[in-house]
Amino acid sequence: xxxxxxxxxxxxxxxxxxxxxxxxxxxxxxxxxxxxxxxxxxxxxxxxxxxxxxxxxxxxxxxxxxxxxxxxxxxxxxxxxxxxxxxxxxxxxxxxxxxxxxxxxxxxxxxxxxxxxxxxxxxxxxxxxxxxxxxxxxxxxxxxxxxxxxxxxxxxxxxxxxxxxxxxxxxx
Length: 172
Prior knowledge:
172 residues, Four Helix Bundle (Hemerythrin (Met), subunit A), globular, single chain, two-stranded antiparallel ribbon, 2 strands
């Protein structure tokens, strides 16, 4: 069991993601999301992988690629902060990351495999952390953030994008 992060542990931008996670056993939720993401992706018909619901919006593949990118960034930040990094970690411009990616031409199954491996690696790292490290604070994109908040943000970010895929891409 873990304590939910307080609003002082993350930038206001992340409040929406944290609010999507009422659970306190964050490690269990992060683990369960692997199967949820796999199941969701398996239900996407092959001809819908390159679908975008409006001009200028990401394709289904790009959304899943973005989710993997964010998992990588949030996990990296959590490890750095847990190790006592004092420097401000760089910003993450998701629009530029997707624009410079090869997600559009990458099969959805490969993107889901990448996310799965990243999540499993992040879980291994998070499970080893002593309880006191979860509240450790660092700086990312010039804003204070805790290791605990990053774990909740990881989970909320996945929920946010699965919801968007369900509602706007009508995949379920």
